[in-house]
Amino acid sequence: MPQTDAAAVALARDGNSEAFHALVERHSRAVYRLAYRMTGTPQDAEDVVQETFLRAYKQLGRFESRANFGTWLHRIAVNCSIDLIRSRPHRESALDMPDLEQFGAAAERNDPSGATPERLMLSTEVQERIGTAMSGLSAMERAAFMLRHFEGHSIDEISQSLGLKTNATKHSIFRAVRKMRIALEPFVADS
Amino acid sequence: MIDHLNEDDLVLHYYGELDGAAAAKAEQHLGTCGDCRRAHTRLQQVMAAVDAMPEPVLPDGYERTVWARLQPDLSRPAGWRTWLSFAPAQLAWLAAVAVLVSGAFFAGRMTQRDSGPTTVVTADQVREQVLLAALSEHLDRSQTMLIDLVTADTEGMVDVSTERDRASDLVAANRLYRQSAAASGEASVTELLDQLEELLVELAASPDKLSSEEIDSVRKRIDANGLLFKVRVLSSTVRERQKQQIRTRTGQSS
Asked: Does the reported pTM lie above 0.95?
């Protein structure tokens, strides 16, 4: 197995499938985590992983050897996630989340009763709460928010990527943040 | 009148999305307004909590599964010769394309003019002919592989390298058939192909040899799902449909 990504890429470019296998071994978990964060479902994340490595394999010739393979792959995975989300506009309405009032009521019901600040600080509970809040985002809200918050893309870049108008992108991010606040604010205030 | 920052302004400010003048104004306001400063701090705390978003838990050997799904697609040679080789993945692809093309053709006929029934049936037959032939071949190959697994010797370590290679060949085709079946709303066929794919992926990712316990576990999974039986039933249904199609065609031409 090649020691470095650069060595593996060089061999894979020459058709060495074992070298590409090594790259899959090293990076597939990270790609899955990113894909899951972007898409929110295991099935879609799997499809993104598959498509990401296929595109990477086909485009190995374009990879600049001085660049970081992980970063390059990360960018492909973001693009694949965006393509998948954009290819399914019907899902947006089908899975559109309840309005913010309903969302707030649901978050309220999930409030751990009698929770002390110490209990609330437990990371598992915080994570559960975040997971619940994330599952309350529509596909577009999730994608826009993830690209802004975790990937550091600007609102203009996100608008271009997702094919939305700037105001629609802002609106998606505002709604996502509002849902996060509704779900997490009691938490952070208490703790 | 105090010009407070609203929730959306705070979000834009947090992400550095306000332009120069607006950002400076917001900063200045936050320096003097306790309410807005508290709201800003709460937003920062919420965003910090979001950073603790849970990571999905992946099973051991996840990388092997990814590779098993990927490898058949990578090894497919490019170029026009590919289309003459009729490997399972290409047959599945051809079948899926045939479904789409004939579907589009059919839709076109329906919307553009009042087509005669004979034309529509012929287009439909072409679609079915390609799909049934390819699917039948795929099911036969899958069935043979399952039988070999079920009847394999269980003494000591069992060499499954042949079955593993066959499973690798079948994975990509199976995925295309499954997606095709799902798109056509064939729920039971989709479910069966999904179960089959799970096993194919697992086998494709397995080492050359399995212990008797491991092979036994594979068998139990085949038995528990009634996989071999279901593949046989579907295979025979497909054959029956092929025969019917031939009969229909013969009846029409005579």
From this structure: no
